[in-house]
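2024-03-11 09:14:02 INFO receiving multi-entity request
2024-03-11 09:14:02 INFO entity count = two
2024-03-11 09:14:03 INFO echoing inputs for audit
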Amino acid sequence: MSTKKIVVVGGSAAGPKAAAKARRMDQNADITIIQKGPDLSMASCGYPYFVGGVFDERNKLICTPTGVVRDPLFYMKAKGIRALPLTEVVEINRKEHKVKCKRLETDEEFLVDYDKLVLATGTEPIKPPVPGIELEGITTLQSMRDADYLRKIRDEGQVKKAVVVGGGLIGMEVCEALQLAGIHITVVEMLDQILTFLDWELAKLVENHVKSKGAMIVTGNPVTEFLGEDGKLMGIKLKNGTELPCNLAVVAVGVKPSTSLAERAGLELGERRGIRVDEYMQTSDKDIYACGDCCEIRHRITGERMSAFYGDLANLEGRVVGKNIVEGNKTKFPGTIHTGICKIFDWAAGSTGFNEYFAHEAGYDVETTLITALDKPGFMGANPLIMKMVADKKSQKVLGVQCVGPGDVSKRIAEAAVGIMGNMTVEDFCNLDLPYAPPFSQALDALITLGHVMENKLQSRMQGISAKDLKEKLNKKDDMFLLDARGPDEYEEMRLGVGETLIPIGKLRERMGELPEDKSKEIICYCKISLRGYEAASLLESHGYTNVKVLEGGIVAWPYPREK
Amino acid sequence: MSTKKIVVVGGSAAGPKAAAKARRMDQNADITIIQKGPDLSMASCGYPYFVGGVFDERNKLICTPTGVVRDPLFYMKAKGIRALPLTEVVEINRKEHKVKCKRLETDEEFLVDYDKLVLATGTEPIKPPVPGIELEGITTLQSMRDADYLRKIRDEGQVKKAVVVGGGLIGMEVCEALQLAGIHITVVEMLDQILTFLDWELAKLVENHVKSKGAMIVTGNPVTEFLGEDGKLMGIKLKNGTELPCNLAVVAVGVKPSTSLAERAGLELGERRGIRVDEYMQTSDKDIYACGDCCEIRHRITGERMSAFYGDLANLEGRVVGKNIVEGNKTKFPGTIHTGICKIFDWAAGSTGFNEYFAHEAGYDVETTLITALDKPGFMGANPLIMKMVADKKSQKVLGVQCVGPGDVSKRIAEAAVGIMGNMTVEDFCNLDLPYAPPFSQALDALITLGHVMENKLQSRMQGISAKDLKEKLNKKDDMFLLDARGPDEYEEMRLGVGETLIPIGKLRERMGELPEDKSKEIICYCKISLRGYEAASLLESHGYTNVKVLEGGIVAWPYPREK
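2024-03-11 09:21:47 INFO inference complete, emitting structure
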């Protein structure tokens, strides 16, 4: 048996995983990782937490759990893998099975043979074509060097105002990190909401939370110019003319797959401009595989190929590639349902599957439900969760779940993700047998409650109205009756103040006379979380009212200013 | 349409849920809840946390989230449901559709008509037939009264030593509550382990944690006598003759379904002596339904009917009953996979599906895997999880997952539970798309890693040995070579000390000469968590060693005393 030569291009997440798996599968293979940057196996998702001071030792980002830095010596000694950092692969010679490499420190070029080549070239940040983008003080957070730079700014404490351009996942993580470092942050997002994996109303609630922490968020108003003096950033100009002074800007408007090497080698790209691979992660060349952010993968629900930039998927894909290059194509990678999460101050925000917007885009006829629920029983010190489910009316399958709030979001998104991958219907979600004890959840987990409310809607036992739709009706001064079903104490403490009538649920049976005489009049019921609102609506319907709706999620999920 | 008369017997969890759901489905129904005890809708799973002082207001156990006590007035006003506490149903007249009730305070008897009757009579504690069981100072934790009694003992601070009889879920929760109150606790379990939803080696790790908190645990040694003076408990006597002084004993050896009312009415019982119901939760009488702990439900994996005493299932079953009694049998209850969890000091312990013991009992040919993994990246302040998976060799389906440790257990058990309900295979677990960000998990969630290791075993890339089997070999002084693949610093800090040789994984390639010459000799590799142990084993196999095993879970999962 001759020694198999495996060359991996890219040393961040997917590449090292593919190399390590190949090593475990074949101890005799000759394995080389070629990495353009200076570091290997960086925990790049950890950069914001290093910048924010959650931990101080930068080497923790490139260490094994026992504290050994993953440098070329470690790779050789512990794994028998040759790792070549600061080395760029400049050309793939597919015919001769060689890659041409260049040592970046010396410009020295050399060739490396391969039997199997793995491309894990990752992404590059998108630089918006905005004047002034080259000014000093403008950075991304894509590399260890960026992380070091931002951490230094944090530690020096000189910068007082900064702007984060882009309100996606990384933008919001950077916002938190710098705001906690005492820098006043403004997030500027060109779209009309942050965090587009969430639907608007949930993103707005997260925005409100971020603002409550002192950071500013500007949406629907892109940066049109970076303003500078002597080559240094002094401020930004927005489309509406506003100028914001700042000495630091972190650009986080997105990334695109790094595919120039693959393109030059004539490998097929997909529609989203990522490297095209089949279910075995094999490119259009049978001896070249790709994994991680540089390639397109399958969407598990639609079957379409798409980009999905997630560190966990990169590792999963790397493992599949490591297996297939050693033992032949035996392992398929099933793809993604776009599960994502981020922590933002005291909240977390997560999504799995389709949100409403993307489900519409994908052509589904959907039902949606939004609820507010506690993550634990009240007596255990519970925190609220605001959750939204999107289901396909036709198949009754759950297409997506979103969750935001101070409660345990990650558990609910994880539960929902597994359910969606298991092709579960709303009915399946209604009867999940989950681990219940008071320190961990309510007797009925918030995700189950979400299923129950969705079932009520699908079976026409409840008609909901979203905060956004109610707000529009209020703006249009629609003729309707608003019923707040809480108690007077609660009403004094917090209320919408939009012309509602307060009738506590316990009094409603005896105070039916205060309701509109016209049984066809539109009535909107709610309470703090809209459980009593739902009970009120059921009662009204039994009294002949024909146009009764429940404000979904109640007051807690109201994203607009309240009277109190 | 005539008014439907619905009578619910039992006012704890399943009964009120059935009543409330029926009310929402039918605002005109005449609904009565008849409850033997004084309270309604008690959060009985919260008793240990009230006893332990997690919260101080007992009414939080019987309140709505907004602080309204769920008393008969609340039920009438807010839900239009008549609730009769301190009232016992003494007889069901199935022919005439009446129940005979007795007010416990006055002995007054009266009849209530029903169209549909719901039995939610719950369980009663098993009292072991041990002499002295009637002494003062012996209690259970089954009712609000018990909770008040134990809370008073906590607050008074007079009792210094107590015994918990039974090391199940409730026993361990009571142990924590009283130990934290400054009472020295001994848990006495007649079986050879606590928490039988776990396999022995995981239960033993939990036991070690409990002991580290100062509580004692005695296994395999049942109580044979409660010792008293003047009618008051003074101590207990164990089977081996040991006497332990104590002034308080909490008996938590289990419960059995309360079925005497159903039996007297001639309703069918199941093999486990719970009320027999079909998939619609309908008993052998078409006008009588049952839900909650009093009835048997279907095991989702085997299809067998069984008891499953869980508060979350009681609520789910109550909801199904509430629907079916109003709209006819439209909703099926799919059953349980026995998902359970409890918090024990700084750890949690959970299980879903089959553990190894019960999988064997059910006749499966299983593969098992045990790993130690971190719940988050090290730089985020991670905590370990010790996890075990049981899979069916034939179908490759995951049959069960157990998890213990200080990390986020509940999330992993929830994920696994949904996967098992989704009929997922080991391969499915290997490629889960879960919500990843450093505050919430490692890039590969611990559950995915568990799947990967299981796949390695199923595909014969790794041979494991359990701590128990290695311990037996050590006791028998088997001839083997033990290889600890960690670094010298780690070895100085913590080690098994069972005759192992330390060769750090990074030195192994150059120190092959120190390994046994006989390539067929049994070699056991490990490290702290056995990842480096696995890499060492792969390397040895590639060098021709034919009998190499990995100690599953590594040193962290070793349940026996260590040298260091």
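2024-03-11 09:21:48 INFO post-check: Chain A has a mean pLDDT of 96.
2024-03-11 09:21:48 INFO post-check: Chain A touches chain B through 106 residues (CB under 8 Å).
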